[in-house]
Amino acid sequence: MAVQPGFIGAMTAPGNGSARSIGSARAEELSHQLTVTTDMLRRHRPTFLGVDKLRRHIGHVGMALFYLMASGALGVFAWALQHVVYHPPPPPGQMYAVVFVRDPAAHVSLSADIYPNQPWSDSLTVTVGHVSPGQAGWLLVIECPGGVPQSSAVHFYSEAGPPTQSAPTLATIDMGTANPKHTIMFGCFPAPKSALSTFAYSPSLANVSVAALQLDDGMVGAPRLPMLYAQQSNPGGAVSRLIQVFPNVTCPSATPTPVPTPSSSAKTSASPSAAATPQPSGGSTVPAPQASSSPPSSSARQVTTPANPGCLNLAPADAKFIKYEIPNSEPTTETLHNVDYKDYQLSMYPNGDTPAEQNGEESIIWKAPSAQDPNFYATSATSQLNGQKDLFISGVLWGIVGGAAVACVDHLYEAYRERRGKLPSRKIPL
Asked: What is the spatial distance between Cα 234 and Cα 71, in angstroms, rounded to a whole number?
C-alpha cells in the first residue's frame, strides 16, 4: 500500500517530535506509578480471614487439616439441608374405625371429628338404635396409624383367605349394650405434656390423618363383609382378642368327599365281587372297577365349613367367642375442623361441604350412607418455598466444600514439596 507524502511529512515535522517526547514521558511516569502500586499491594495485601497468618503458624499440614475439617462440617450441613427436602417426614398414616353389632338389623351411625392442629382431640360418636332386646351389644374397633395405639389395646386378627394366617395388629376397642349414644377419643396421638413437647410429625393441615369409617385395612377391596369374633364371656365384658373372618375363608380340615351317582351305584350292584377301596376321608367306600369295565362316573362335592376361631387355631379350644356383624344401616359423617386455607393447596375426593365455623375458619364435612374413606391432601406453599431456599443454600455449601477440598490437596502438596526440599541430598558413591 502506498503511503501518502502528507502523512510522512506530518510525522517528521518539528512540532510532532516534542509531542512524542511528552507522551513518552507520561507513559514512563504511569508505568512507574503502576510498579510502585504493585509493590505496595504485595507487601500489604489483605488476607482473607487471616489465612496467611494462620498458615505461618501451623504450616501447610495444619492448613490441610483445617480445610479438611471445614469441608467435612460444611458437607454434613449441606447434606442435612437437602436430605430434609428430598426425604420429608411421612404423614401419620390412616386411621380406621368400624362398629360391629350383634343384631345386623340395628341402625348405627358413626361420626368423626378431626382437628388438624390438635390430633389428640380427634373423637368418634357412635349412635345405636333399633336393637332387638335379646341381641343388644355393639363393639367399636379402632386401628391407629402404624398399628400402635396410645391407649390399651387387644390383638386383632384379620383372616382374608387361606392358607396363610395374618399377623395380629393392635386395635383399640370400645363397647356398649344399652347406651344409645357414646363418644370416644381416637387415642392415636398423645397430647403434649408441655409446650416443649415434640411429635414424630408436625401437627398441621399438611399432616392431617383423616379416618376411614366403617372400613379397616382388611375390608378395603374385599368382595364381602366379614364377621367379627370377640373372645369375651358376655356382651360388654372384657375382650381378650378379636378375630375377623371373611366369608371366603374355610376351615383347613375341609376335604373333598366323593358323592356316587346312580350310574355308579348300578355298576356297583352289578359287580358284587369288586373290591372296596377306603377313601381318604375314611367315611365311605366305593368299589374298585374291573380292568375290563369302564370306570364309574362320579361327581365330587367339596364339603366346606365356614371358618371360625376354633378351626383357625387362633385361640384355645375352650375359649368363648361372641359373634358380631356389620350393621345393615350405617350412615357415616366425618368433619375436618379449623381448616385454614392460607398458604395451602388442597386436594380432596370426594368434595365435602365447607360451612364456616364460629372462629371464622371453615370446616370440611363428608357424609355417606355407608362406609367412606375420604382422600385429603394439603400442600404448604411456605414449606415448598423454604425447601427451595434450603436447596440453594445446600448447593452453595457444596461449592465451598469443593473449594476447601482443593485447598486441602494443595496444602498437602506444598507440605510435600517443603519436606523434599529439606531432605539432605544423597551422594552416590563412584
From this structure: 69
What is the Cα–Cα distance from 331 to 143, expressed in whole angstroms?
A: 20
Q: Which pTM value belongs to this model?
A: 0.62
Per-residue pLDDT tens digits for 14-50: 555 555 566 677 777 777 777 766 666 555 545 555 5
d(CA 385, CA 91): 19
| 380-389 pLDDT, tens digit each | 777 778 888 9
Name the least confident of 80-84, 172-176, 202-206, 403-407: 202-206
Q: Are 320 and 240 in contact (CB under 8 A)?
A: no
Query: Looking only at Cα atoms, what is the longest distance across the chain?
Result: 153
β-pairing, 332-339 vs 107-114, is parallel
- Locate the DSSP E strands across 189-284: 211-213, 227-231, 241-245, 256-260, 276-278
What is the rounded CA–CA span in Å between residue 109 and residue 111?
Answer: 7
Cis peptide before 258 (omega within 30 of 0): no
* Distance (Å, whole) CA 324 – CA 228: 5
Q: Is 57 exposed, middle or buried (0-12, 13-18, 19+ CB in 10 A)?
A: exposed
Q: Report angle CA 2, 5, 8 to the nearest 5 degrees.
A: 100
Q: Which element (helix H / strand E) includes 412?
A: helix 381-422
Sign of the CA dihedral running 143, 144, 146, 148: negative
Helix (H) / strand (E) element for 107: namely strand 107-114
Q: Does the CA dihedral 101-102-105-106 come out positive or negative?
A: negative
Burial level of 107, CB count in 10 A (0-12/13-18/19+)? middle
Domain spans of the chain? 49-87+381-422, 95-191+200-251+307-373
| Secondary structure (3-state) at 297 | coil
